[in-house]
Amino acid sequence: MSSGGTVALQVNNTPRQIDADADLPLIDALRDMLDLKGTRFGCGAGQCGACFVLVGGHPMPSCETPLWAVAGKSITTVEGLGSPGAPHPLQQAFLDEQAAQCGYCTSGMLISAAALLRRNPDPDEAEVRAALERNLCRCGSHNRIVRAVLRAAAGNKSR
User: Fold this and answer.
1) I need a labelling partner for 2 at 20 to 30 A (CA). Which of 38, 91, 100, 116 fits?
2) Domain boundary among 32, 53, 80
């Protein structure tokens, strides 16, 4: 375990300084120190997707990512995708498709979908399902989630 210190992060396009042990999991810094509660703790082993954030545009499990691994890198949480007044197209599509039944997995799903649409703005259903494969949904909203991602992609084409 490394000793405490200051770790510089770029979170949702804002420079942040965290006074913590560099081995602290990113999820703990986001939720407990930066008050960004959208990232959810699920399995604690990086296998469920509830804690995914974008690091340099790629989905990464924040539960098993230490601060030192993301120091100076661009981190986007679900709060950084959009706002209540101006939701990201994916967030709006999730609302329109009623894709959040219990909502626990939603932030991770949105993060994985945002990464997909960044690298492929026009995916087909199989590509959406493959991109969301690491995200678990226990309440059965998966088909609505897939429709929401396809809907957001269709909206990208009309812009």
Assistant:
1) 38
2) 80
Residue 65 phi, psi (nearest 5): -105, 115
Whichever domain contains 53, its CATH number is: 3.10.20.30
Q: Are residues 19 and 54 part of one domain? A: yes
In Å, how far are 28, 51, 115 from 54, measured between CA atoms?
A: 16, 10, 7
- The reply to whether 68 and 96 lie within a common domain is no
Longest Cα separation, the chain = 51
pLDDT score recorded for residue 49: 94
Confidence (pLDDT) at 144: 93
Count other Cβ atoms within 10 Å, centred on residue 62.
27
> Whole-model pTM above 0.90?
yes
Query: Taking residues 24-32, what's their average pLDDT?
Result: 98
